[in-house]
Amino acid sequence: MDRRRFLTRTATIAAGIAGPFAGVACAGAQGGARPAPGYGRLRPVRDQRDGVVRLHLPDGFKYRSFNAAGEKFSDGSAVPGRHDGMAAFAGPRGSAILVRNHEVNGPVGAFGDRARAYDPMAGGGTATLRVSRYGEVLKSLPSLNGTMMNCSGGPMPWGAWVSCEETVNGPDVGDDHTGGDNSKLTEKHGYIFEVPLKGRATARPIRSAGRFAHESVAFDPQTGTLYLTEDNFGFPSGFYRYIPPRHPAQAGRLLDGGRLQMLAVKGRKSADLSVGHPPGAAFGTEWVDIDEPDPSFTGRPSNDHAVQAVGKQGRAAGGAIFSRLEGAVYHQGTVYFVSTQGGDTAQGDTPPDGFGKGRGQVWAYETWSGRLKLAYQSPRAATLDLPDNVTVSGRGTLVLSEDGEGDNYLRGLTRAGGVFDFCRLAPVAGDAGAEFAGSTFGPGGHTLYVNVQSKQGRSFAIWGPWQRGAF
Asked: What is the pLDDT of residues 289-343, one digit of tens each?
């Protein structure tokens, strides 16, 4: 796609100013607790695949699960577990092409063809599938292997997915909290990788985009800039941007060798945005350079030291502090990104583990003005509990995947700032930590594809009367 066509397909900046999310930043004279009608009461629904109840949905909605861990790809290799971030692209004859992450940690060995792996000892990566609107798998193959902890990422409109490693493991770093032996790894990790829709990824990391606990990517087609989130569980996280040396629409791919920067609040050095703020709080911003985006270590320092190496550079230069930045999505001139544990602990709630004591924030960064706004802040766990991945519907409603400690939901955040329940995950036997991830609407909005990340993991196609509600 040439750059002219590429830019004319994007929304105008003026649309972003008025924006379908203009009301969200005002949500919450009641502290963000405004309910929205949604699609009605949730009820248990049987999987069209095998009759097992895995999801609770409103009346009229159906689903089929597919491509579960342990099943076979089209080439006969095994599907790995820990299904995570995902994007859908238009495929031939009404099908969808899905590119899906697998957040596998540790030196467990690469899935698929190890000879083509970035690191033959690392078990994460991506799979590319062609599926029908009803979750029928037409083709499925590994598309990137030998990476690690591929959490989320972002779709690129030139026809690619950028996958993010949420780790800094490598042979030069001490073992992480899981105790996996990093000395068995052959490559450094903590990068982003481009995965084309056709064929396999080159497995070449974009090193200038930083070595840190990457979570997701949102692409600004006007400038060619990638906005990056960091989920540094036990420590402060940053919001970054990567400016490639050439606009990807002109280059036809994402190039290494650009600049990495961290967002800072004007006039407030290292401002702490992880705590609670009033509804609609807004800040002027600027960007500070990261001088050493791709650190290597000697003496195998602790993982806790290594995972903070890039972020500390930004904060020393004045970069803002966030709590666990996870999902991000670009929509009409604004990047919406999620702080999973941002905010304050509400009365009656228990503070979550890790850095940040709230139940979640949604931030809005206006790429055209540099203005940062608090779009939504969870008032309590019962309203919104630790939001993670995020996508946007055709009507401009955010879909938030929860990563809470009790029941986990897919919840909608409307343009007016209301929150509603759309889908509840039925308990997964033997895995209390199972959660939703990777929600993405297929071509035309007929199907919402989503993953359940568990000790095994599987993907879902959900369809029904979308016109009845805000999606």
From this structure: 999 999 999 999 999 999 999 999 999 999 999 999 999 999 999 999 999 999 9
- Rounded CA-CA distance 313/333 in Å is 28
Question: Phi first, then psi: what are they for 14, rounded to 5°?
Answer: -60, -40
- 345 band by pLDDT with thresholds 50, 70 and 90: very high
CA torsion through residues 163, 164, 170, 172, sign: positive
* pLDDT of 22 above 90: no
The encoded tokens of residue 197 equal: 């829709």
Question: Phi and psi at residue 315, in whole multiples of 5°?
Answer: -70, -30
Within a 13 Å sphere around the CA of 151, how many CA atoms are in the beta-carbon half? Answer: 28
**DSSP, res 162:** E
Dihedral (Cα; 225, 231, 237, 240), 10-degree rounding: 0
Predicted local confidence at residue 260, as pLDDT: 99
In whole numbers, what is the pLDDT of the chain averaged over residues? 93
User: Using an 8 Å Cβ cutoff, are 55 and 45 in contact?
Assistant: yes
Check if the beta carbon of residue 435 is closer than 8 Å to that of residue 403: yes
Tell me the three state secondary structure of residue 17.
helix
* Measured distance CA(81)–CA(104) in Å, rounded: 7
Amino acid at position 347, single letter: Q
Spatial separation of the C-alpha atoms in residues 121 and 127, rounded to whole Å: 18
For 66-135, give the DSSP string: E--TTSB-TTSPBPPS-EEEEEEEE-GGG-EEEEEEE---SS---SS-GGG-SSTT--EEEEEEEE-TTS
- Report the C-alpha gap between 34 and 170 in whole angstroms: 45
Q: How far apart are CA 361 and CA 275, in angstroms?
A: 10
Asked if residues 411 and 419 have their Cβ atoms less than 8 Å apart, the reply is yes
Neighbours of 316 (CB within 10 A): 12
Nearest to 322 by CA among 239, 436, 431, 223: 239
Beta strands across the sheet bearing 239-243: 214-220, 225-230, 239-243, 259-265, 282-289, 371-377, 361-366, 334-339, 325-331
* 368: nearest Cα among 20, 27, 23, 18: 18
Which pair of structure tokens corresponds to residue 390? 């995020």
First to last CA, the chain: 29
